[in-house]
Amino acid sequence: MIQTALSLMLILLGTHAMAQQADQNNMKAYPPASEGMKRFVLYLEPKQQEEDYRVELMVGKTVELDAQNRYFFAGNLEEIIIEGWGFPKYVVKEIGPMAGTRIGVDPNAPKIKRFVALGGEPKLLRYNSLLPLVVYVPKDAEVKIRVWVASPQPVTLNEG
Q1: Radius of gyration (Cα) for the chain, nearest Å?
Q2: How do residues 29-76 score in pLDDT, each as one tens digit?
Q3: Strand 88-91 to strand 133-138: parallel, antiparallel, or no bridges (unpaired)?
Q4: What pTM value is reported for the model?
Q5: Which residue pairs, CB below 8 angstroms and at least 24 apart, start in 17-21?
Q6: Nearest 10 degrees: CA dihedral of 29, 35, 36, 41?
Q7: Which DSSP category does 54 fall into?
Q8: Per-domain residue ranges for the chain?
């Protein structure tokens, strides 16, 4: 049993090492960032059931704001398929103005640093450890991710 688990772990590590080597070759598909932009590259760890995982991709900036209101930046995160390769890349060409709720706040209340993301629906991507996740954003932007996982067993709904 231990030998089997160890063999499986070595196979997974070997597969991950081969995937990372393939990733280095695949990086030829992703050009360096253009002037005024920067490129982020993420290699995801292999998972047993990758179809049960999603990666939430968040692009934004950290700014000083009040703690009560909700804020977001205008902008568009677009998926572009690289011609000739078939690999996706994610691009935010510009981050627009910030908007938010207008709850009255004590003007003397201290400001806090908060990450403010692009508005709209969350961008949930398929979890894929075989390809790098490559994101191009403006120089002053930040990129964050969250990994989501489905519950191990689906729940059956009752009619009604």
Answers
A1: 20
A2: 999 999 999 999 999 999 999 999 999 999 999 999 999 999 999 999
A3: parallel
A4: 0.80
A5: 19/46, 19/129, 19/130
A6: 20
A7: E
A8: 2-149
